[in-house]
Write a structure and sequence with these properties.
The protein is α/β, with parallel strands linked by helices. The protein has 28 helices and 14 strands. Strands 2-3-4-1-5 form a five-stranded parallel β-sheet. It has a three-stranded antiparallel β-sheet with strand order 10-11-12, with no helix packed on it. Strands 6-7 form a two-stranded antiparallel sheet. A hairpin with a 7-residue loop joins strand 6 and strand 7. It is elongated and about 110 Å long. It comes from Streptomyces gelaticus. This is AAA+ ATPase domain-containing protein.
């Protein structure tokens, strides 16, 4: 008895002929499923068990080979591409092409291959005797493709082999010569999203693909996942691609409007590729031959029960479907308020939806509510995490590119409402970016940040990033310090510092009296003045408010005796130490009456300085020291209008995934923590270097000094040269008025 050698190939093993080879492509084009002959009940009963198994297996194989349904996307791709093929026949260069873009699972590869199959069948019909003609070339872009890898994919389709040392030029020449010999006039390139123009290899591979388009007298059709957001249209290369190619959005077949339902019935019931008689007679139900089933996501028997906790009880009457609320009675209900506006709101057609590239969005099973002042990217990220979805894909579905033509994507309220099942006005109440009209972004901090950790604990799915207004420093509900944007440490508890919590309430009263602009400038100026007081070398006599600041720092940034290090250091917590005194100074800085006294005669200024000394230690410098930040504000800033933020928040973003902490911010934080642990003095200087105080240190927005130390020194100047400079600025300001 002879046993075969283990190394001998299996004679029944199928050949390696994928779709990206000419053998696999020809098999795909020639393949046509043949439906089995339907059997009557008597014929099926006469079959033996083995024949019945064989018959069922034959039917399963036929039904597994799904017949092709010409959806609107396939029809549009085929029609547009066939027209471009005719227009490009006599073109020498700059040929037009097609790009099929959409989310994963929307039939891009199917539409691309069906385009190639339809074109090759049409060419075979025109040239029945030319068996050497190969009109279609199909390749896929490999991940991290290089120019040589891309050229080898073209060569592999024709079955060309090259030695490992062959250069790209030889491969390209052989491919172009072979393509011209077999008369290729349609090139299909799938997985085009693997090309990234941001990398050098991706840009070179894109240039190689463009070179093929110039050398080959053919029409190119690309397909990829959301190629608009992958950077394929950026830069000079991207603009050239966008100008020569027609972008066709790929979307699933919708079933929302009456027109869509009619198209669905005509498609399923009348398509010649679908053969209802092929199903076994015992599997069909009487009286249902003419009914066309709805898509699975639209069937009422597939809808889950509402997730009310009482319905989990076995005896609850709402547990059974029969007890669910039925359709409304025949008497029409009266529409009120928002329902009237929604009823008369015009609905867009399917063509308009496809033209905008809008994907039909299904409601998520667990759409948790957004947090107050949360940014949409944070909310979408939490939804994606809870449901195991890709954040960037979900972000692309509910957003669109901004109308200004930039690369940022802004949230479409209707899409987010369809995704979560929540009304638009409820979402806009929590997410400022969805409000109409748009809010004044100068009222918010330019940098999103985390809020109260105890408030965020109610919102599952990950970290909650919020866009807080300028006046929000403390969570009054949980008595925790939020502070300005800094390192993402958990909010610190202020239970042992009630004066800091009371300062937030005073801050809100100042806001309601003077408005956000004056309050914003007043509180920042108060923080800046307190930072100058806290940054002196040596304590003057008598001791002042910095003693209370040192006590607060011991509570906010405690020292661990076992580890011999400070716990939870951050500059934001140092702002909490001086926040009560800064709010105490804010009414004097925001009030027009006190600003007029600060800019008045010497007697009026003395009255202003006396009021300052009643609220904080002033003067804070010994007589022999130069520099006074409060006197400088009275001289140079009291007559100016309130300072505005230097940077404002820009809504929208390119990708849904939020970036982590910047490396420079992390390095600056680590350096500050190191110096604080070593010296633990001059804390006010650390506050002056924080970006939160830049708007009041750079009131005109111009850097006068190379280093920031010069700007800090300039904010304490009261010398004669400074007085002359202020006089010149006031004359120039009066001349403009």
């Amino acid at each position: 008895m002879n046993t075969p050698s283990p190394s001998a190939p299996d004679p029944e093993a199928p050949p390696d002929n994928p779709l990206t080879s000419k053998e696999g492509w020809r098999h795909f084009v020639d393949h046509e499923p043949v439906p089995p002959r339907p059997l009557t009940a008597a014929e099926r009963a006469a079959l033996s068990p083995r024949e019945r198994v064989r018959e069922d297996e034959q039917r399963r194989e036929y039904h597994a080979d799904l017949p092709m349904v010409h959806t609107p996307v396939i029809r549009k791709v085929t029609t547009t591409s066939r027209l471009l093929i005719q227009l490009n026949r006599n073109q020498i260069s700059a040929r037009r092409g097609v790009i099929l873009s959409g989310a994963s699972g929307t039939g891009k590869t199917t539409a691309l291959t069906q385009l190639g199959r339809a074109h090759e069948l049409a060419v075979r019909k025109r040239h029945p005797r030319d068996r050497n003609r190969l009109p279609v070339l199909y390749v896929t872009v490999p991940p991290a493709a290089t120019p040589k890898m891309l050229a080898m994919e073209f060569a592999r389709f024709f079955g060309l082999t090259f030695p490992s040392r062959a250069n790209v030029t030889d491969i390209v020449d052989a491919v172009c010569a072979t393509a011209a010999h077999v008369r290729v006039d349609l090139v299909l390139v799938d997985e085009i999203h693997n090309l990234t123009l941001a990398t050098r290899s991706g840009a070179e591979a894109s240039d190689q693909l463009k070179y093929f388009a110039e050398r080959l007298p053919a029409t190119f059709a690309y397909a990829g996942i959301d190629v608009e957001s992958k950077g394929l249209f950026r830069g000079t290369r991207g603009e050239q691609i966008a100008g020569r190619f027609v972008v066709i959005p790929a979307a699933p077949f919708t079933h929302a409007t009456a027109e869509d339902q009619d198209a669905w019935r005509a498609l399923v019931g009348g398509h010649p590729g679908i053969h209802p008689p092929a199903a076994p007679p015992h599997a069909r139900h009487a009286g249902r031959a003419e009914r066309v089933p709805l898509p699975p996501h639209r069937r009422h028997d597939r809808q889950p029960l509402p997730g009310h906790p009482w319905r989990r009880r076995p005896r609850h009457r709402g547990r059974e479907r029969a007890h669910h609320r039925g359709p409304p009675s025949g008497r029409p209900r009266r529409l009120r308020g928002r329902a009237v506006r929604e009823a008369h709101r015009p609905r867009e057609t399917r063509e308009e939806t496809e033209a905008r590239g809008l994907m039909p969005i299904r409601r998520l099973p667990d759409p948790v509510p957004p947090a107050r002042h949360e940014i949409p990217a944070s909310y979408v990220g939490r939804l994606a995490t809870l449901h195991g979805l890709d954040i960037n894909d979900l972000w692309t579905q509910i957003t669109e590119r901004e109308k200004s033509g930039g690369m940022r994507r802004v949230v479409v309220p209707e899409r987010l409402s369809a995704l979560t099942g929540r009304p638009i006005h409820a979402l806009a109440g929590a997410l400022p970016e969805l409000r109409t009209p748009r809010p004044d972004w100068t009222m918010f901090r330019h940098q999103p940040q985390t809020g109260c950790h105890r408030c965020d604990a109610r919102h599952p799915g990950g970290k909650v990033t919020r866009l807080l207004p300028h006046h929000r420093y403390i969570c009054l509900r949980h008595r925790t310090w939020i502070g300005p944007p800094d390192i993402d440490h958990p909010a610190v508890d202020l239970t042992r510092l009630p004066e800091v919590v009371d300062a937030q309430r005073k801050h809100l009263r100042i806001l309601s009296r003077y408005g956000w602009a004056a309050t914003y400038d007043a509180v920042l100026s108060g923080l800046m003045l307190c930072a100058h007081i806290w940054s002196v070398d040596g304590y003057p006599v008598p001791f002042g408010t910095w003693d209370a600041w040192d006590v607060r720092i011991d509570l906010l940034i405690p020292f661990d005796q076992e580890k011999q290090e400070y716990i939870g250091y951050s500059t934001s917590r140092m702002f909490a130490a001086v926040y009560p005194e800064a709010v105490a100074l804010a009414p004097l800085i925001a009030s027009p009456h006190w600003r007029q006294l600060a800019d008045g005669t010497k007697a009026e200024q003395a009255r202003f300085f006396t009021e300052i000394s009643n609220r904080i230690t002033y003067p804070y410098n010994p007589p022999d020291r130069k520099g006074d930040a409060i006197a400088h504000w009275s001289l140079a800033d009291s007559w100016r209008p309130p300072s505005q933020p230097l940077t404002t928040y820009t809504p929208g973003r390119m990708h849904g995934k939020l970036s982590g902490l910047a490396a420079n911010r992390l390095a600056r934080h680590e350096k500050g923590a190191m110096w604080f642990s070593r010296t633990r003095k001059d804390q006010g200087r650390t506050l002056l270097f924080h970006s939160h105080l830049k708007p009041v240190l750079l009131r005109d927005g111009k850097h006068r000094y190379e280093k920031w130390e010069g700007t800090i020194w300039h904010s304490t100047r009261t010398d004669e040269l400074m007085r002359k400079e202020v006089a010149d600025m006031r004359r120039a300001s009066d001349a403009k008025d």
